Structures are given as structure tokens and as C-alpha cells.
Amino acid sequence: MKVLIIEDEIPAQRYLKNIIKEIKPKWEFLFPLQSVEEGIEFFTEEEVMPDLIFMDIQLTDGISFEILEQVNVKIPIIFVTAYDEYALRAFQVNSIDYLLKPTFVDAVKVAIERFEEQLNLPLKAEVIEEVLRTVKTSDKAYRKRLWAIKPNSLDVVIVDDIACFYSENKQTHLLSLQNDKAKVDITMDKLEDELSPERFFRINRQYIININAVQGIEPYYNSKWVLRLKIDPSIEIVIPKDKVTKFKNWVVD
């Protein structure tokens, strides 16, 4: 039995693979894919195909249903999503199997059992078209959870509990409202797109901050301001002068 995981977050790839291996130690894994482009190329050119696909909905370059729109994939798929309201109604109406991130052993086991009972069938073209249309026209749902990379573990973190994200040495980090630190395998640009703009603000290239973590701001120099965080007022985050007004309006909106 060959399995293909299509997932753009490396920790999530590894975590899901380990869960599947725990349930089905004899199953084989093809090299994972991370984007719509890679998916289209794989199903167009590769000869060795998987027997089952675990596919994240939101990939780096688009929605995974765009792969199915471009190529005819006659392989059962279990979709994975971090967004509780991300077109799940369309999934339920069309009896499409899906897992909510973070995935846990019991949920994956049930999904695999459905696959083995042949309850998870390849999607028909009209179903793909309907769900893709629903996803594209739905109000955008924002990320609620993510993986925090720590020295000896991967921890699930609720994004509302994160004070800020910051970039350091070309690596994304988070600082929680409890003053805990961890690495995150997501770029700052992708986080900016996936986080709720009501809750998070991209202060500068280095920082994205949670409104609940803001203590206040102080004049700096050259029309710039400095933001201080409640959890550690010693941290000074410079607000560029072209973002000062936008930031002030964001706080009180």
C-alpha cells in the first residue's frame, strides 16, 4: 500500500506520516509534495501512483482542489485542513472525508478504516467543481492552530495565545502570551496571509503582533514609533512611519 502526503508544512508532514506508520507500519510512503504545481506535475508525469492520498487543502500556491481540477485523479483522498469552517459544509454534503488539524491517531485511524471499507471513493468531476466553487466563494477562514517546533517535541498552539511572530536568522519564531518561545515552519508572508487581520498586524518585515499583546506605543525618532508588549516591555518593536497611522486605526477599529 503506497501513500502520498500533499502538505506544505514540514512538521505537519512528518507528524501525519508518523501517525499513519503507527497505525499501518507496513505501508509505504512516496516522496511528499508541497504545492499545487508539484501536484499537477506529479499526477501528469509520474508512473508510480499511490493507493491513498492525504491532501492539505491550503497549499503554498493555492487550493489543493485546483490539482483535481487540472488532472483526473482516480485515487481516494482524505483531506486535511486547519480551518474549522473552511468549506466543511460542502465536504459534509458530498460525503468527502477530511481531518482537522491537528490530526490525532484516533481520527486518522477512523479515516483509514473508511478507506479500507471502500467508503472513501474517488471524487467525481461535478463534486470537485462544486467544492472548488464553494471554497473560492466562501468568506476566508483564518488559521486557528499551528505547530510549534521545540527541541524535543512538536506542540499544538492556538494562534490567539501567541503574542507575536518574529523573524530571526531567516527562521520564523513565536512568542506566546505566556512568554514561551518556539520555532515555526511557516514564512512570515504566509502567516500574514493566514492570520486574522482583526487579531494580527504586520508591524514590519520582522514582526507580526497580536492585538491582545500590545501594551502601548511611544514616539521614537524620524516620525517612527516604538511598540511595547505586555509580556516583556523591554522588547522594542519599531513601527515604520508609513505604518503608524494604519496601526493606530487598527488598534481602535
Automatic annotation (TrEMBL):
Protein's organism: Flammeovirga pectinis
SUPFAM superfamilies linked to this entry: CheY-like
All residue ranges annotated as the Response regulatory domain in the record: 2-116
Protein name, entry field: Response regulator transcription factor
Domain HTH LytTR-type positions: 175-230
Modified residues annotated as 4-aspartylphosphate in this record: 56
This protein's record includes keyword Phosphoprotein: yes
Annotated InterPro entries: CheY-like_superfamily, LytR-like, LytTR_DNA-bd_dom, Sig_transdc_resp-reg_receiver
Gene Ontology MF terms in the entry: DNA binding; phosphorelay response regulator activity
Keywords of this entry: Phosphoprotein
